[in-house]
Design brief:
- The protein is α+β, with helices and mostly antiparallel strands.
- A 4-stranded antiparallel beta sheet has the order 3-2-4-6, with helices on one face. Strands 1-5 form a two-stranded antiparallel sheet.
- Strand 2 and strand 3 form a beta hairpin.
Length: 128
């Protein structure tokens, strides 16, 4: 990934950190979970992500005027630059298609959508 400070392709995810789960620009207070890249292929990572998404759907399904979910952000600010740049913590970087595939996320969202009667209409995949 490109570092926003030095503009080189030297940015990597930290070995461990926090993933923020944000849907339609809404995030629960507990809408984050810890990751460890050593365990990224471990089913535990996907289980934790699914658990956080389900918590969100349970919470969101109780809204009076809920809109269809059209936007999902899975992001982290836990990154390091090989050039040792000081990347501001306010910068967040998507983990989608890096730590977890869009296809897996869409499958999880589809199941939760049916379970909690919340519509999900994500746009087509765009190239970055």
């Amino acid at each position: 990934m490109y570092c926003p400070v030095c503009m080189n392709n030297t940015l990597n995810f930290s070995a461990s950190g926090v993933v923020h789960v944000i849907l339609n620009d809404k995030q629960m207070d507990a809408g984050r979970f810890y990751y460890n890249l050593d365990d990224i292929d471990d089913p535990h990572f996907l289980e934790e992500l699914t658990k956080k998404l389900e918590e969100f759907f349970r919470w969101y399904s109780n809204f009076q005027n809920k809109e269809a979910i059209t936007k999902i952000q899975l992001c982290t600010s836990d990154v390091v630059c090989e050039e040792k740049c000081n990347v501001p913590m306010a910068n967040r970087f998507s983990i989608l298609d890096v730590m977890v595939s869009r296809t897996k996320i869409e499958g999880i969202l589809e199941k939760l959508s049916k379970k909690y009667s919340v519509q999900v209409h994500l746009g087509p995949k765009t190239s970055s």
